[in-house]
Specification:
The protein has 551 residues and is mainly α. The protein is built from 21 helices and two strands. The protein has helices at residues 7-38, 42-71, 73-91, 98-125, 136-168, 177-185, 193-203, 210-245, 257-262, 271-295, 301-309, 316-319, 324-341, 347-369, 386-407, 414-436, 442-445, 456-484, 490-517, 520-540, 542-550; strands spanning 313-314, 376-377. Helix 2 (42-71) packs antiparallel against helix 3 (73-91), helix 6 crosses helix 8 (210-245) and helix 16 (414-436) packs antiparallel against helix 20. The two termini are 30 Å apart.
Length: 551
Amino acid sequence: MFKDHPKGLIVLFFANMGERFGYYTMLTIFVLYLQAYFGWDASQAGRVYGFFLFGIYFFPLLGGFISDKVLGYGKTIALGCFFMGLGYFLLGQPGMSEWATYGCLGVIALGVGLFKGNLAVLVGNLYDRKEVSHLRDAAFNLYYMGINIGAFFAPHAATSIRNWLLEKDGFTYNAALPELAHRFLRGQVDKTAELQALANAQLGTPVTDLGKFCTDYLASLAGSYNAGFVLAAGSMIISMVIFLACRKFYKEADIRHKDKKAEAGAVEMTPQQVKDRLVALALVFFVVIFFWLAFHQNGFTLTLFAKNYTVGEVGRLTFILFDLPALLGVVAAVWGVVLLAGRTFSGKMKGVGAALLVAGGGFAYYRASGFRADGNPITAELFQAFNPIFIVFLTPVVIGVFTMLRRKGIEPGSPAKIGVGMFMTAIGFGIMLLASSGLQSVHALEGGVSPELVSPYWLINVYLILTVAELFLSPMGLSFVSRVSPPQYKGLMQGGWLGATAIGNLAAGFIGPFYEQWELWQFFLLVVVLALVSFTMVMLILKKLNRAISS
């Protein structure tokens, strides 16, 4: 996959993967930590979560300004690694006050802002040389795959640490216990039968002091989340070491426009060219707001649909997709098939492929043989793993398709790919329109589970199509910003792309209440219409965007 690419891409790929592993490890347990430690309800924790995410995507504007005008890209990225690691580490310390927690979140958001957009600038700068410029889109696809490898493993790592530390203290995780324990300690539980039963089940013996049990359980649970934050800090250290130790591979890309001017090596744009490019970027930023509005329903309304309208138990074969060890076995087997079938791979690589096929397939079969023929439980959270694993699988396929089209001279430009991504987003939510047809509305359920449940393959297929849409749009958007940004504003414009993402996140929450107020099919029809409007806008301004690339 990395053939013909600059070696610096590999360095930035792994630096990005480590940073994203740390970030998503923290994000997986963040709201749960707030509820377990402070006793907050979902509404209060959700407000803090929302403001934090908004800061995560708006601080890159500051990071872009600092890199463009003050420190340069490499130093700004390294400083971002430091702040993220510091924030995660401090958040991992027991006994943090509410305001100290807010301070930690601010430090983390600042670190992400210094890191995220500027690393994308370095990726783009690697492809400013004419001999590799045609690989820019493929490079951002690979870079994006690194993000999602980290995102895929992070939730499993955070959950495993939590369960391990709880078990060391003699407990197991129960989602109902934190709220009940806090309410009991605040004197808000009149009938203790439910808490008593859960406590007895935890310790395997009648619990005589419920107050001590609640205190011990909450302390153990919060401590397990603290350990997850420290793990995130460790991941940031590894990411920073990779980035700094391998600087020689991307050194040529770590140079700003004003540094090139000082060396008389910069190509100057006319004021009109700068204006045209900034206008084109602003148009793209506006369009992608609609994509993120739709796409980020995955953590909101699609998760609620999984919870209330999707079957909670599946058969042996389907459960392979929800069981991490079995799924990794399948992944290994599939890669084995790819290596065996590839014409360009050496005999040694084909041997590796055969080993992966046998070992991965055998392990997946062994694992699946222990599943029940029917009745294996799945939860709504597990659907979140499909997007990153699909990206890992599909990135090589998408790159291969683009490479084939480029060789035939018919590869679409980045703006057209963005348009295709929006159209596929409409198709994905069109499937949800079909899946929800005839189901009761949310307000009719009154918080319960629908009497009519649908197959999980509806959602799995939606995630598959949305992943393809994301691969056409998000990496291509990063590539477009890298290609079109006026040299003196590269960092700031990557921050602008992430700022548009932040607005899309807010908009995703803004339309969320309609999910509860309308019929289900009406809500998903709204998302389809918004995606189609965005697609139409891209097509209408396509010539203008393509001119910005060539100017």
